[in-house]
Structures are given as structure tokens and as C-alpha cells.
Amino acid sequence: MDRIPELPEDILHRILYFLFQEDVVRTSALSKSWRYIWRTRPNLDFSDNTKYYKGVVNNTLQGYCDLRLCLDEFRLRISSGDYSDSELVSLLDKWIPLLTTSTMGVKEFQLSILSKNSVRGIVHLPVVLKAEPLKLLWLYDCSLGQNIPENIPFVRLQVLRLQSVSIEQEIFDKIISSYPLLTDVWLQKCEGLKTVILKKKLHRYLKH
Amino acid sequence: MAAETGTPTTLTLKSNDDELFSVAESAAILSVTIRNMVEDGCAGGVIPLDNVDGKTLASVITYMNGISAIPADEEKKKSYRDKFLSDKDFETLADMVLAANYLNMSCLMDAVSAKIAQVMEKKSVGWVRRKFGIENDYTPEEEAAVKEEHKWTFEGVETDDDN
């Protein structure tokens, strides 16, 4: 019966990998040996329906930063109804650079911005695009606005998933042409795209 | 590596309690650990697996054979994994996750880890302790302090008598 709690920490982290942050934090109350295991798992998942308090996301990220912990994956789902537009921009503006510091080095980032009134929350591309080490970017339920970013810096991107995203044709074309390593593009229920030009070497999985 | 044609190569694996198992190389190389040995040419005789007991190894080999018989169809593989794990108790799952880690079999590792994690989804501390046989060594005051620190995670979980 007592084999699970005896497992080594890296295996416990792999188990915790599959849970949302809320469930993971609760393991701190199981026993003394579980007190801090949750704190160092190499992924954070704030993408369930729990209303995460701003302070929780902020403090958790700051904790990873202070302890110089590695963070491979970060999933975040926020409701734009809880924030004003400018507040949202400033939070992402603060968090995204943290994610991509050399110690954390997030490789996979999932972001969704839910909004009330079925209007999609706007993700300001220049903010998201600061995330240079990203290999996977998954945006859903959001709009990428109308401003074409001047620079598209994250050159390591391999997988791009856009799901229920409003995106201007020109922005999409610019993104696609900027990533030399991009191999997978998933598009689902995207508005605003008229044509997708297929280039050789790109494997595309298109879902409508 | 196995020749492209002719009879399939069979490997002999030895558990840490000295049980011997024959398994097709094509199935065994799902384990990156074993695959590396095969590629390095160290798999000629008996392959000793010092961290896996016979009971667990037998189960892992059943999995290797089962999953490698399924063509590249992720949904069918997933339903095989679900079925394979459905009757395993926590003790067996703990052995399996250790074996999968040692053998470097990421698909099995993830499936078992996810299965164990499921138990903790939206469940109270008392529930998880009972399921996993975790002894609570906090004093009531210490436990209350830990819960107070992360109060937001204790709201709205499925509770039971000793939350």
C-alpha cells in the first residue's frame, strides 16, 4: 500500500506532471515528506477552470526564478474578464520574460485568454513574441490583434498551434516565414485566414 | 539490429530474481535502455535487468508484445494502454513506473504516471492519503498551518469524513 509515497522525487514529479497546479499544491498537506515536492516540478499548469489568483501565478513564477529552477512547460489560461486590457498586458509583460530566463528556459508555452461576451481576448503579439527559447506555442481562444509585429524573435519554434484564434492573414504569413525550424502547424477554427501557402519541408496538419 | 529478412531475432532478458524471459527484439527495443544495448552489440547473450523483478518484467513484456502488435494508430495504442493498466493495483503501478523509468520506456512511463495522478484529481488530502497509504506525520497545528498557506487549493475539492 505504501509504495507510491516511497518513489524517488523525479518519478513523483513525473506523476505530478499530469495535474493542474491546484491539485499539485494540495499534496503539500499529505505528510512532511510531501511538504515541498510540488515546489520543484518542472512544469506548471494553470490551465484548468480554477480561478487562479494573480498573486498565485506571480508568486509561483517568482519562486521558480528565485530558486533558479528549471521550468520546461508552462500552461496558462486566463479570463480577460478578470483584468483590464492594460493589466493583462502588463502581467504578461512581466511573466513572459521570467519564463524565458536562462535558468527557467520554458520550451513549451500554452496560453489561452478567455473572455466574456464571446469576444476573444487580445494577445499582444509583441509581448508573447519575447519568449525566445520556445519550441512549442499553443494559443487558443484569443485574438492576435491587427498590428503586424516588426520583429519576430523566437527562432527555435518548431510547433505552432492556433485554435479558435483570430489572426490576420498578413500576421500569419509573417510568422510562418520567420521560423526556419517550424515543422508542425496546427490550425483549428481560425478566423481571418484566407490562404495557407504550403512550402516544402513543412509538415502541416490542418484541421477545420 | 535484426536483419531485414529471415527469422526475427529473439532476446533473453533476466530479472533481478533470476527469471529468464524470451522476447522478440522488435518488441524489446521499445525500451531505449535495451535498444542501446542492442545497438552497441551487447545484447548477444542474456541481458540482465538488475532493477526489475520477474513479476514486473513479465508484465512489462506483455505490454511490449501487446503494444508493438498494434500498427501506428495512436488511439488504438491508447486504448490498449488503458485496458492494460485498468486492473493494476497501486503496488503494481509503483513497480511498473520504476521499471518503465529504468528501461526508459516513455510511453509506458507516461501512461502509468497519468494513471497514478488521476487519483489526486480534485480529491481531498484524506482521500489521497488513504488511497496511497500515506501516513500523516504532521501535528494538527502543522497541518492547519500548511493548509492555511495554500488556502485556495482546499476550496471546492471532493471531501470526505477526514478532510
UniProtKB/TrEMBL annotation, chain A:
<feature type="domain" description="F-box">
    <location>
        <begin position="1"/>
        <end position="49"/>
    </location>
</feature>
<dbReference type="InterPro" id="IPR001810">
    <property type="entry name" value="F-box_dom"/>
</dbReference>
<dbReference type="Pfam" id="PF00646">
    <property type="entry name" value="F-box"/>
</dbReference>
<dbReference type="InterPro" id="IPR036047">
    <property type="entry name" value="F-box-like_dom_sf"/>
</dbReference>
<protein>
    <recommendedName>
        <fullName>F-box domain-containing protein</fullName>
    </recommendedName>
</protein>
TrEMBL record, chain B:
<protein>
    <recommendedName>
        <fullName>SKP1-like protein</fullName>
    </recommendedName>
</protein>
<dbReference type="InterPro" id="IPR016073">
    <property type="entry name" value="Skp1_comp_POZ"/>
</dbReference>
<dbReference type="InterPro" id="IPR001232">
    <property type="entry name" value="SKP1-like"/>
</dbReference>
<comment type="function">
    <text>Involved in ubiquitination and subsequent proteasomal degradation of target proteins. Together with CUL1, RBX1 and a F-box protein, it forms a SCF E3 ubiquitin ligase complex. The functional specificity of this complex depends on the type of F-box protein. In the SCF complex, it serves as an adapter that links the F-box protein to CUL1.</text>
</comment>
<dbReference type="InterPro" id="IPR016897">
    <property type="entry name" value="SKP1"/>
</dbReference>
<dbReference type="GO" id="GO:0097602">
    <property type="term" value="F:cullin family protein binding"/>
</dbReference>
<dbReference type="GO" id="GO:0031146">
    <property type="term" value="P:SCF-dependent proteasomal ubiquitin-dependent protein catabolic process"/>
</dbReference>
<dbReference type="GO" id="GO:0005634">
    <property type="term" value="C:nucleus"/>
</dbReference>
<feature type="domain" description="SKP1 component POZ">
    <location>
        <begin position="11"/>
        <end position="65"/>
    </location>
</feature>
<comment type="subunit">
    <text>Part of a SCF (SKP1-cullin-F-box) protein ligase complex.</text>
</comment>
<dbReference type="Pfam" id="PF01466">
    <property type="entry name" value="Skp1"/>
</dbReference>
<comment type="similarity">
    <text>Belongs to the SKP1 family.</text>
</comment>
<dbReference type="InterPro" id="IPR011333">
    <property type="entry name" value="SKP1/BTB/POZ_sf"/>
</dbReference>
<dbReference type="GO" id="GO:0009867">
    <property type="term" value="P:jasmonic acid mediated signaling pathway"/>
</dbReference>
<dbReference type="InterPro" id="IPR016072">
    <property type="entry name" value="Skp1_comp_dimer"/>
</dbReference>
<dbReference type="Pfam" id="PF03931">
    <property type="entry name" value="Skp1_POZ"/>
</dbReference>
<dbReference type="GO" id="GO:0016567">
    <property type="term" value="P:protein ubiquitination"/>
</dbReference>
<dbReference type="InterPro" id="IPR036296">
    <property type="entry name" value="SKP1-like_dim_sf"/>
</dbReference>
<feature type="domain" description="SKP1 component dimerisation">
    <location>
        <begin position="108"/>
        <end position="152"/>
    </location>
</feature>
<comment type="pathway">
    <text>Protein modification; protein ubiquitination.</text>
</comment>
<dbReference type="GO" id="GO:0005737">
    <property type="term" value="C:cytoplasm"/>
</dbReference>
<keyword id="KW-0833">Ubl conjugation pathway</keyword>
